[in-house]
C-alpha cells in the first residue's frame, strides 16, 4: 500500500465583530468579518518543470517560512505524514534543503519555548517525535479506531489564530521541490483564523487518549460560517464570501459544511466553466476490500455539462502510482464530447511531471499533487483526492471562496487561479486522454 497515495471546532468569544446581515441578493445569511486580510495563492513547482511564463505564484516553502516567522503565540498544525528531512531515503537528496530548513526553524521555535506548538497527526513518526522531545504537543488522530477506515490527510497550518495555510502540501521535503502543490496563504485574518482553529480543535480533541466521536459536538465547536452563510471577508482591497469545509462528516460539528457538500455546491453553482486539477479522480471507493461505485462528483459534472452546458476541464495526474482503472472513467467523461447535438464540452487531460533518471529514484515524487477546482463563481482549494474514501472516512479540509467577476478587474484570487490552471492545461505537461 502506497503511503503517499493512500493517502488515502473552541473559543466562542470571537475576536471580531460579527454582524449578521441579510443579503437579499444572495437570499442567504452572510457573516461579515471586519479584518483586512491578505490572501495569496501559493504553489510548488517540481524542479526542472519550466513554463514559458515561469512560476508566477509565491512558493509553498516561502509561505511556510513566513508563517513560522510570524508566530508569536501558537502554531497549530494538522498533518498527514511527516518527512521534512531526507532520512527516509538512502542517499541524501540535494533538493531536500527547503524541507530541512522548515524542520529546523520549527525545532528552533519549539526549543525556544515561547510559542505553543501543537500537532495533530496521522501516525507517529521521527519528525514529530523529535519535536515532542523538546516540548511540542503531539496527538495522533487514530482513524482505524475512530472511523474504522480512512486516514488523517489534512494539511493545515494555523498561526496565532490569524494566519492559515490550507493546500495539498504535506510536511514532506518533496512538497517543496519534487511535487506540484497548490494552496492558499491567509494572513492577518482573525475572523477566518478563529474558524480554522475550530477545525483544528476537532482533531486535537479526537487525538486525546481514548477519545471517541461525540454524538453531538459541544457548542464551542459549532460554526455559523458555511455554504448558506459564508463570511464576507475583505482581502487585498476587495471582498469575497469564504468558508471552510471538513471531512469526514462525523468530524463536522453543527454548522460545519461537509467537504463533499462544498464541492457539489461549487459544481452546481457554476454557470460557464469548471476547471479541476486533482491528482486522483475515481468515481469509486477505492481503499475498501471490494471497490464500490461512488458517483456524487461524476454525476454532478455530467449534469453541469449536459443540462447546463457548462464547460468542464478535468486534469488528473499521470505518475508511477496511477491505477490503470482511473483512465477508463476519465475516458467515459471525455467521450461525451463526441455527441455534438448534446453540446457537451468536457475535456480531460493527464498531467505528467517528467523526471530525470536521478529524480526517478526518489519514491513518491514527481507528481502533480494539487487538489483544487475553479469555476466562474468559486475557487475551491482542498486537501483530498477525488475518490469516495476521502469524503466518507478520511480527514480533510477545504477553503471555498466565492467571487464572480464584477464589472471591474481588481484583485480576484479566483481569477488568479483560473490563470494558474490554464497555464498548466496548455503546457506541454498536460496531454489529452485519448
Ligand atoms: C496513517 O495511519 C494509518 C493508521 O494508523 C496507517 O495504517 C497508515 O500507514 C498511515 N499512513 C501514512 C502515510 O503514514
Ligand atoms: C534540475 O533542477 C536542478 C535544481 O534546480 C538543477 O540543479 C539541475 O541542473 C536541473 N537538471 C536538469 C536536467 O535540468
Ligand atoms: C527515524 O530515525 C532513525 C534514527 O535517527 C532512522 O534510523 C530511521 O531511518 C528514521 N526513519 C524514518 C522513516 O525516517
Ligand atoms: C542535484 O543532483 C542532481 C543529480 O542527482 C544534479 O543533476 C543537480 O545538478 C544537483 N543540483 C545541485 C543544486 O546540486
Ligand atoms: C484508555 O483505555 C485503556 C484501555 O481501555 C486504559 O488502560 C487507559 O487507562 C485509558 N486511558 C485514559 C487516559 O483514559
Ligand atoms: C449554516 O450556518 C447558519 C448560521 O450561520 C445555520 O443557521 C445553518 O443551519 C448552517 N447550515 C448548515 C447546513 O449547517
Ligand atoms: C467482496 O466481494 C466478494 C465477492 O463478491 C464477497 O464474497 C466478499 O464477501 C466481499 N468482501 C467484503 C469485505 O465485502
Ligand atoms: C503517462 O506517463 C508515461 C510515463 O512518463 C508516459 O509514457 C505517458 O505518455 C503518459 N501518458 C499521458 C496520457 O500523458
Ligand atoms: C476583465 O478581464 C477580462 C479577462 O481578463 C476581460 O475580458 C474583461 O474585458 C475585463 N473587464 C474590464 C471591465 O476591464
Ligand atoms: C494579496 O497581496 C499580497 C501582498 O501584496 C500578494 O502577495 C498576493 O498575491 C495578493 N493576492 C492576490 C489574490 O492578488
Ligand atoms: C498541477 O498543479 C498546478 C498548480 O500547482 C495546477 O495549476 C495544475 O492544474 C495541476 N495539474 C494537475 C494535473 O493536477
TrEMBL record:
It comes from the Eukaryota. Pfam families: PLDc, PLDc_3. Signal peptide: none annotated. One of its GO terms (molecular function) is catalytic activity. Residues 148-175, 364-390 form the PLD phosphodiesterase domain. PROSITE patterns: PLD (PS50035). Belongs to the phospholipase D family. This is PLD phosphodiesterase domain-containing protein. It comes from Candidula unifasciata.
